[in-house]
Amino acid sequence: MAMIEFKNVEKYYDKFHALKNINLKVEAGEVVVIIGPSGSGKSTLIRTINGLEQVNEGQLLVTNFDLADKKTNIDKIRKNVGMVFQHFNLYENKTVLENIMLAPRLVLKRDEAENKKIALDLLETVGLADKAQSYPRMLSGGQSQRIAIARSLAMKPKALLFDEPTSALDPETIDDVLKVMKDIAKNEGITMIVVTHEMGFAREVADRVVFMADGQILEDDTTAEFFDNPKEERAKKFLSKIIKH
Amino acid sequence: MSDFIAAYSWENIRYLLQGLLVTIEVSVISIIFSFIIGAILGLTRYIKVKRLSAIVGFVIDLIRNLPLLLILFFVYFGLANVGIRLSIFWSATLAMTVFESAMLAEIIRSGIQAVEPGQMEGARANGLTYWQGLRVIVLPQALKKMIPPLVSQFISLIKDTSLATIIVLPELLYHAQLVYGQNTNYVIPMFVALAVMYFVVCYALSLVSRYLERRLAR
Ligand SMILES: Nc1ncnc2c1ncn2[C@@H]1O[C@H](COP(=O)(O)OP(=O)(O)O)[C@@H](O)[C@H]1O
Ligand SMILES: [Mg+2]
C-alpha cells in the first residue's frame, strides 16, 4: 500500500485547470523532489495532499484515506502528514517551545512532561535549544524554518511535505535548513515530498525527481536517471537553467 | 468668574454627576451587550456559513449606514406604536446596543481577517481543527489588532449617549441643559464642566486601551 497515491486527479480553480491528469505514487519512506517552473502547479499538488486544496476529480489516497471523497475526515490525515511552508507560518502569538508543543498537546493529548522533553530534544536536533522562549518575530528566516520543521516532527508524522522551504531565506542560512532536512531524509524513515530548486539536495537524498509544467507531470524518474539522462525537452532546458545559477 | 463659582455649587455638580452616572450606566450596559452580539455577528460573517453570513452581512451594513438618532427614534417611538413600551432608559440602551453591535461586528470581522491566512494554514497543517486554530491562534492575534478600534468605538459610544437627550434621558448633557436653563449665565460654565467630564471618562478609557495593548504586545 502506497503512502500517497494520485489516480487521474484533476483540480480546477474556477475555470483554470491547475492539475491535469495527475498520476503519482509515493511509497512509505521515499523521498521525492518536485521541480518545475513557477506556476506549474507544484504548490497546488503538494497542498492537495493534506487537504489545503480540494481535488475535483480522480482519487487521492493518503495513508489509506481518499481525499477526493468529501466524507473523509481531513483532520485524521493531517495528524499523520506535516507540512513546512515557504513562509514558515509559525504561531506569532506563541513562544518557540509552545509552537512545538501545541499540536501534540491538543491533538495527540500527549502527556505534558513527555511533550516538553520531545520538544526540547527537537530544538536540540535543529540546533536552536537556546531559542525555546523566543517569539517567532525575533528569529531569522533560517531559524524560523528550522523551528517549523521541529514543529512538524513533534507530531511524529508518517509523511512531511515541504513547499519551497528555502526560497524565502537568505543564502547563508539555507544550508542549516537543508542539513536538517537531509538528516530527516537519511535517518527518520519519514516519507518526504519536497518542492525545491536545490538540486544539490535532490541529488544527495532524493529517491525520485518529478518534473512538472502547466499542471502536468512531464517526467517522473529515479534521481540518477533524471539528472544524467532527462527525457523531456522542457526538463532539460529547465535543468540547464537552474544549474547555471 | 463669579458665574463659574456660582455655577459650580455642590448642588449643581452633584446633579451633573447624577447625569454622568446615567451616561455611564447606559454606556456600560450597551458595551457589554454589543460586544457579545457584535462578536457573534462578526464571527458569523467571517466564517461564512452559507446564506446566514450573507444575511448577517446585509443587516450589519444596513444598521451601520443609518444615523444612530434614527435608530433611537425607531426604538422609542416605533416600538411604542406597535405596543411595546420600554422605559426611556431601556429605549436608549437598546438603540445604542443595536447600533454598536453592528459597528463592533465589523471591527471584529476585519480584525480576524487582518490575521495572516498563513496562521490558520499552519494550524490546520499541524493537525489542529478549524475551531482550535480559530480559538488558540487566530482570535488571540485578532484581539490584539482589534483593541485600538474597539476602544475608539467605545469612546464614540459614550459620547453618543448624549443623543438620548432628545428622548429626555436624564443623562449628563440633559442635566447640564436643565442647570443652565435656569440661569443663562451658567451656559459656558456648564459646557466647560461637560467637556471636562466627557474628557476624563473617555481619556481614562484610552489609557486602559494603551495599557492592554502594551500587555498583549509583550
Ligand atoms: N487560490 C488560487 N486561485 C486561483 N488560481 C490559483 C490559486 N492558487 C494557484 N493558482 C494558479 O494555479 C497555477 C499553479 O499555481 P501553483 O500551484 O502555486 O504553482 P507553483 O507552486 O508551481 O508556482 C498558477 O497559474 C496560479 O496562478
Ligand atoms: Mg509554489
Automatic annotation (TrEMBL), chain A:
GO function terms (MF aspect): ABC-type amino acid transporter activity; ATP binding; ATP hydrolysis activity
Keyword entries, A-Z: ATP-binding, Nucleotide-binding, Transport
Matching Gene3D superfamilies: P-loop containing nucleotide triphosphate hydrolases
InterPro entries xrefs: AAA+_ATPase (IPR003593), ABC_ATPase_HisP-typ (IPR030679), ABC_transporter-like_ATP-bd (IPR003439), ABC_transporter-like_CS (IPR017871), MetN_ABC_transporter-like (IPR050086), P-loop_NTPase (IPR027417)
One of the Pfam families matching this protein, by short name: ABC_tran
UniProt domain ABC transporter: residue ranges: 4-239
Keyword Aminoacyl-tRNA synthetase: no
The keyword Zinc is annotated on this UniProt entry: no
Entry's family note: Belongs to the ABC transporter superfamily.
PANTHER family given in the database record: AMINO ACID IMPORT ATP-BINDING PROTEIN, PHOSPHONATES IMPORT ATP-BINDING PROTEIN PHNC
Protein name, UniProt field: Glutamine transport ATP-binding protein
Organism annotation: Dellaglioa algida DSM 15638
UniProtKB/TrEMBL annotation, chain B:
Entries under InterPro entries matching the protein: AA_ABC_transptr_permease_3TM, ArtM/GltK/GlnP/TcyL/YhdX-like, MetI-like, MetI-like_sf
Location relative to the cell: Cell membrane
Predominant cellular place of this UniProt entry's protein: membrane
PROSITE patterns xrefs: ABC_TM1 (PS50928)
Domain ABC transmembrane type-1: start-end pairs: 20-209
Membrane topology, record value: Multi-pass membrane protein
MF (Gene Ontology): transmembrane transporter activity
Domain of life, source organism: Bacteria
Entry GO terms, CC: ATP-binding cassette (ABC) transporter complex
Entry's transmembrane regions: 20-43, 55-76, 186-208
Gene3D superfamilies xref list: MetI-like (1.10.3720.10)
One biological process term in Gene Ontology: amino acid transport
UniProt keyword list: Amino-acid transport, Cell membrane, Membrane, Transmembrane, Transmembrane helix, Transport
Pfam families, per database record: BPD_transp_1
NCBIfam families attached to this UniProt entry: HEQRo_perm_3TM
Family according to the record: Belongs to the binding-protein-dependent transport system permease family.
Protein name per Swiss-Prot or TrEMBL: Glutamine ABC transporter membrane protein
Species the sequence originates in: Dellaglioa algida DSM 15638
